[in-house]
Amino acid sequence: MADESCSTEIQQRRVELVGNYSKHLTHLLDLLFNVGAVTEEDLSLVRGSAVRGERECMRVLLDVLNGRGEEACRAFLYVLPSVQDKTAKLGQANRQEHLKKHKDILARQHGLVDYLSIRRHCLGHDETGCWTDITFSRQAGYASPSQCRHESAGVGDEICIFKDVYENLLCSPASGVNMLSGDAGSGKTTFVRRLVREWAAETNSSKTVLSLSFRELNLITQEQSLQDLLSDHYIHLKPFLPELLNSNPAQFLLILDGLDEFCYPLNFEHTPKCSDPERVQPIQSIVVNLIKGNLLPGVSIFLTSRPHAVTKVPPVLVSQFYSLLGFSVAQQKQYFEQNCSSPEAAEAVLASVSSHKPLLLMCHIPAFCWIVSTALHDGGSCLFPDTAGANSGEKGSLGAMAFKGLLERRFIFESSDLNSFNLDSANLSQVFLSEILKEDRASLTFEKGFHFIHTSMQEFLAALYYVLQSLSGSDPFSGLKPSTGCSIQNALKQMASAVNKFNTPQRLFRRRIKKALRCGERHQSGHMDLFARYLL
Ligand SMILES: Nc1ncnc2c1ncn2[C@@H]1O[C@H](COP(=O)(O)OP(=O)(O)OP(=O)(O)O)[C@@H](O)[C@H]1O
């Protein structure tokens, strides 16, 4: 009776055995041959079905075993656990190896060299010295749009630092949807970079980070599945992704940086519900289903956004809401000390900033500290002292392209855009602040593009272009033609007299500034926030 049960068991488990063991057929055949359960003839018979796929081979093997009787079936059931053990161990080791590789790749993608360009000198030292402390406020969810607009902590908000946010996102089991709101240039992407790098350096992390930016997601024009999206982005995880995503989504932290830049509308009410990672759908539906917890239920999500776009996500879906509060005066001091070439230079920069109240106020935004310390890197008192000179035409064209980009809400430029403004990408790195543009190898498409080293720089150059055009009597809006370089060159030559005019604004100039501000307001997207501040 006991003997009969082996062949019966195999028949009853036929579907499961074909599903789970077809992949390990070679190993199984070796074991069965070694214990004498199958003959060479049997092996040929099984392997002869290879053209119809490994599952068919497995079916043939089960038939062969059945034909050979109870002894062979018992041997099969006996060797089965060792196949399972070995493959589980191999799979585990392989997976660990790939996750380690994943950490290395993510750390490289979130590297510092291009991003915090002026602090290369600190890279050889302890990395924590590269980041300046910044303060956050934390509240459970957010209730109203006005709540996400202000930059100071409200009553009942908890004040926290990097470590607190890190622990909530990466050390607590499942933290739902977390949102970080901050003004343009306030340090959201820098926070993401630091988070990823510190996670990658940790040996015992329980969660795995996946990081995407909305700027990259904008490039996806075809419908696709979440699984394909992630597999394309993280090719090294491809063999494990289906299993990882299905088995335990709670082990992932998914970072989505820059919601304000996402160009597709998010419709939380009418997007069809989808919980299948393999289902093909538009990119905005993937985002909605992730945030609603339909796709990868239990995954922790970290969204960053400029304040105006926070309301794209309904408050009820947000479990923790963080705001970046900017640099305090003490933190600004720390920043300049970390980023200037010497303590004397840092002191001179700080003195320069402190003597201009508007500048001091603006420097609570890290991007301003970055621009100011780059411009005054030697501690001098003149902003961008070497902007006048032989390449002013190119700088002006760059400003025109930056302004056109803002009007069209574009942050990535193609070679043809550069050509139409007579800009040569090869020269640009030498022209302005050494790294004004960098190549964008958007990893989802591998297409070549360019973007300003930071959007705050794009907005700064656009504002500079706008002011100089207006002061020279030209209309900045009509100056966005390919030949713009020449007219800007003239404008830059007149910089000195223009600055005087700036002190005694003329009616036309005032009208132009008002027009620009109205234009900024009309673009409710907030991508001209800094542009407007620079103008003022
Ligand atoms: N904590 C920090 N320590 C040192 N530098 C920082 C820090 N935060 C921001 N910066 C500097 O400010 C610049 C702008 O920061 P970041 O790109 O993170 O802003 P953002 O909030 O993502 O801006 P945007 O909304 O325009 O995308 C960085 O390039 C970096 O030089």
TrEMBL record:
Gene3D superfamilies per record: Death Domain, Fas, P-loop containing nucleotide triphosphate hydrolases
Domain CARD: 2-80
Domain of life: Eukaryota
Annotated InterPro entries: CARD, DEATH-like_dom_sf, NACHT_NTPase, NLR, NOD1/2_WH, P-loop_NTPase
Keyword list, A-Z: ATP-binding, Cell membrane, Cytoplasm, Immunity, Innate immunity, Leucine-rich repeat, Lipoprotein, Membrane, Nucleotide-binding, Palmitate, Repeat
Domain NACHT: 176-309
Molecular function terms from GO: ATP binding
Cellular localization per UniProt: Cell membrane; Cytoplasm
Keyword Heme: no
Biological process, per Gene Ontology: innate immune response; regulation of apoptotic process
Record's signal peptide: none
Pfam families (alphabetical): NACHT, WHD_NOD2
The name this protein goes by in its record: Si:dkey-118k5.3
Organism: Cyprinus carpio carpio
